[in-house]
Each structure stands twice: as C-alpha cells, then as structure tokens.
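Subject: Interface between my chains keeps coming out wrong

I've been trying for a while to get a sensible model of this assembly. When I model each chain on its own everything looks fine, but I need the whole thing in one frame so I can look at the contacts. Pasting all components below, labels as-is. Any help appreciated, I'm running out of ideas.
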Amino acid sequence: MPAFFIKQIKPICFFLCCLPLVYLAVLFATDQLGANPIERITRFSGDWALRMILITLVATPLQRGLGAVWPFRIRRMIGLFSFFYVSLHLSSYVVLDQFFDWREIFDDLIKRPFIMAGMAAFVLLIPLAVTSTKKMMRRLGKRWKQLHRMIYLIAALGVLHYFLLIKAGWAEPAIYLLVYLVLMLLRVPVIARRVR
Amino acid sequence: MLIKSHNKHDCTESEVTDYSIYVKRRQFIEASARSLGLAAIAPSLLLSACSDAATENAAKGISNSDQPRDELTPYEDVTSYNNFYEFGLDKSDPAKLAKNFKVKPWSVRVEGAVEKPGVYDLEDLLKGLPQEERIYRLRCVEAWSMVIPWNGFALADLIKKLKPTSAAKYVQFETLYDPQQMPGQKGRALDWPYVEGLRLDEATHPLAFMATGLYGKELPGQNGAPLRLVVPWKYGFKSIKSIVAIRFTEKQPATSWNIANPGEYGFYANVNPKVSHPRWTQRKERRIGEFLKRPTLPFNGYGDQVASLYQGMDLKRYF
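Reply #2:
Try treating it as a single job with all components included. I did that and got this:
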C-alpha cells in the first residue's frame, strides 16, 4: 500500500463515501432522476445504505488478511456513513414517499414485514452511532465491543429487508446475501486463522 | 390550379400533437419540476388546473370536483418508465433494451373455443376494426399511475370478428417468447411466456381496449408493441404486452403473476383501495409527475361502468 494512501486514508475515505451523495445530487440537479424521482431516491439511498453496512464488515477480515492497521482507522467513519445513508433512506420514505402520513406509516410498520425489518435495522443502528465516539468507547470498555457486534444482526436485517420488498427476480438481493455470508464466514475462527 | 402532392415522409395531420396538449404538457413538466422543490410548501401547485386534453373518457368516474384532475402523463415518462420484465427488471431497462425490438412481421395465433381459429397476420387481424383514441388512467399494482392516450380498437370488436363459440368463458393472452430479442426471458423472474386472461364478459366490456399506438404514434417496444391489452379498471399487470396468441377457453386460465405469487396477485386484480397488497397499501397512488400521493379510486375510477360485472362477488376474496 503506498505510504501516501495510508497517511491520507481518512480524507480519501471521506471523499469516497460522499461520492454516492454527490452523484445523487447531480442527477437531481440535472433532472435525470427519471419518471419517478422519489422511488429513485429511495432505492438509491437504500442501496448505498446496505453497501456501506457491508463495507464496514470488510474492515476486520481485511485488517487480519493484510496485517495492517489502516482498515480499522476508517471503520468508524464508514459506519457513520452507513448511518447517514440509512437515515437518508428512511427520510426519503417518511418525507418524500409518505409525506408524513403517519397513519400509512404506522400501518406499514405493523403490517409489512419488509418495513419492520428495515425499521428494526435503523433503530438498532442508533445506539451504535451514538456510542461511536472515543469517549463512549472508553466508558463502555468491554461492553462496547459486545454492543457493536449488533452490526451483524443489522446487516442481516438489511439483506432481509431487500429480499422481502422484491416482487420477482431475486438475483440482486442474492448477491448481497452472498457477500454477507462470505464476510460472516471469514469471522469463523477456523477460517479466520487460515486467512491470516 | 395548384396541385399539392404529399411526400411519404410528411407528417399527416393526425400525427401532429394537438397544440393544447403541447402547451399543457409544458405546463405539466414545469409544474412537476417546481413541485419537487416546493411541494412541501405549496401542495396545491401539484393539483394544478385540469387540461381540456383530458377528455370525457378520462374524466369519467371523477365527477366530484374535490378529486384531483387527470392530466396526460408526458410521452417521455410513458415511454421510459415501464414494467416489462421480458426486457429487464428495472423500469428503465425496457426503453433501452427494446430499442431494436422487431415487430414486423407479426402474427397472432387464435385458438380454442372459436369459430375462426388460425394464425393471423397482424394486419389481417386488425382489418375492418374501427380505430379510435382512448385516454385512460393506468394504475400499477406498485401504487403509481399514469394517464395515457392510447390508439387502437375495442377488444369487443375483435372478439366479435373472431366469433367465440358458446363454450368460451374466458380469453387468454400470451406474450411473445423470444429470449434472443427479450433478454429478460433468459432469467427466471417469471414463468415465460407471460400469460394473462379475462372473463369473456370483461373482455367484451366496452372499456376493454387493444392498443397499437400511444400519443398518436406507433406503440414503442417498451410499451408492448405491436399489440397490447389495456384494461383500465385493473392493475397494470393484467394489460399484457406484445401479444402473439389469443385463446378462448372454458376454464379460468392460469396467469403469470398469479402463478408466481397467488397470495399477492389475483386473477381479477381489479383496482381496489380496500384490498391491500401484502407489501404495500393500495389506498393511495403516486401519479407520475406529482409529489403528493392521491387517493386510489375503486376500479380505478371506472366503477360506474364496470362494477356491475362483479355484482354479488366478494371482491376481498376474488382480489
């Protein structure tokens, strides 16, 4: 890994994590969101929310495989970007799609499994985002690690959310599931030792 | 004396977009652009004045002045946002992948309980059928909707021409199966070929329509060229595209989405705000080009004309 890359890893990572948002803004500004812009924004933000969550799960195997520290130095930032894109996705649903129609939103929450899975993932992400500071890490000590293992469940809920909302043609969510399973398998001690 | 000769490539008068439609479309596009930014502040903008382009047909069923009016959905949106899984799962795929879709020559197989079975060349099939324009609302099961000016003919006229026998109780339609041209058929999203069907009394209802064009132009591939069904009081997936076979049957045909997921897509699939899809409500819909959702009307607003077809039926059971 070039030294420059490692030295500047944080600004580089920040820049890369902003790219989807910039791309969305460009589509919006140039009127290229298509016939149903709200659907497009919701899907786009949802795609990137799930991708970001899965990328956070790459840090540990990458750190082990490379024996390098830098993946851990950007893990928190990517985690917070995950929360950002999930929030964008949820806002798009509440504000643009439902326009604060609380009756419909409540109805969705109690009746539609894909909304339940997505909302559960969002709610579970909140304590992770809140406890992402160094201060909180120190304060929570051992329990911090336990708490943040919840990301495994959150990622699974995200993939489930995708599966449940699709009408037909499961190829795309299946790719996300595969990536998730590989990332989880790399954490199984027997396999993890071999990768190292 | 001046003799005016017409060149082949000249536009005929009927091809010219009516000026009022043109003007209204500009206003519509501007209004939707504005609405994206301002809708939160001024939702009334979205429900902007109705155009005279929305003809009686479109206004039918919406006599209540409190109801938002119907405006034509811009041609560009109608032809770039399509659910046509034969050409890909994303709604932007069909416009890209159907560009070179070959619709000439096209033949339609007519079979089953009918006096005039056979393989018809499309032109022969359409011969003698009175052409007309119908402006219909299209309500997708995914809770979005459009208003589209179709060109074509009444399905009832075609059925009359083909003369079904007394055994015929249903009509079944089939889409072309050609994975070379329709790359979506290489995947297994649905059981190909796509099949849809109607009860014979539904099919012969005056509102049931066969389209060969829209906005006065030939039907683009992504919209189901060269021949598609339009049943405005049912969810869009009933309106089968690129039809190659019409079969008259005694029994209710097995239809594609119903086979794929019987709990979510019924045979009747009448637009019904009271019966939710398991994964989304059907109470409201987003009209393409508008920000706020509008209430969905029973039978997509055509209830006064078609509700009698379903008298005595439990529409929650036969959804």
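Reply #3:
Confirming on my end. Chain A has a mean pLDDT of 94.
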